Amino acid sequence: MDVSKIQLMFQMQAMSMLGNRNSSNLSNGMQDMTFQSLLREAMEQSFRASVPSSPSRLSHPGQSPLAYQVPVSVEKSQGMVNDISNVTSGNANVDQLIKKASARYGVDEKLVRSVVKAESNFDAGVVSYAGAQGLMQLMPATAKGLGVTDPFDPEQNLMGGTKYLRQMLDRYDGNTELALAAYNAGPGNVDKYDGVPPFRETQNYISKILGKA
To answer: How far apart are CA 194 and CA 178, in angstroms?
Structure first.
């Protein structure tokens, strides 16, 4: 944070306190609001400047600073899956495996890439705080149920994750938003809320994938 800005703001606050004796209550309130607004803006700028650009291997990509921002309405992302651009991993082998998994399970290749990008940023060794593993962040129990014996093997993880995404698409009659919500928060929560759960992380997750995936 810029120290000079902080010093200036405290000087402004001190001046407003000295002027309290001769100014009206309305004026005092306006000065306090101005000071608080400037301080809040400076703190937010400092926070944004400190946010890392890529996920840690031991942190869940879904728990990014975006989870603390006002989520984009999921309604705005409806029908945007057709606008998904070609996200690439930068790894020809991973891209080929994504293409293979997509063809095997009949899931849009660009959608699969986008899920991988959102889940792990194409890091085959990432482990979330909750224990989800690999490119498509499979939980151990889910991976086992999908026949994945090594979640850190790119091919096994991509095949298992794409198969699970296919299952969610089938479960919700091809509704991409609900399938993504189920992938992120679990089908139990989608069924419980009869739609996208009111979780900020899940709403951001869907918007992120359908908006830029």
So the answer is: 9
